[in-house]
Design brief:
Blueprint: E1 2-3, E2 12-13, H1 18-29, E3 32-36, E4 42-48, E5 51-59, E6 64-71, E7 74-80, E8 86-92, E9 96-100, H2 101-104
Antiparallel strand pairs: 1-2, 3-6, 3-9, 4-5, 6-7, 7-8
Amino acid sequence: MFNTTIEPENPIKLTYNNECEKAQKYCLSGEVIYQVQSKKRVCFFERSDSGMKKTNTFIVNGDYVQRLETQNKYTQVSYQTKSGATVTGWVELASLRQIDFKSTW
């Protein structure tokens, strides 16, 4: 698809936002989800006997995640990548904002 409204001679190719597709899926199911709210990358942590260890995995502002479990200031989340793989890890709870499509739309 192309946008031809501004300059019909120079159409702009439209891209699809995968995050919107995830949001629609959650909205239709009525599930409460969370959205990353951070200007910086939000790193995943692994839980170990000595505490939380930072990993190289991260999510960014605007990503949607499912919250699985919370312990103190960390919450375990599940994130679906663009390729469809699911990544699970711990992030700081303060970096997430609850989105409840059922009660807000």
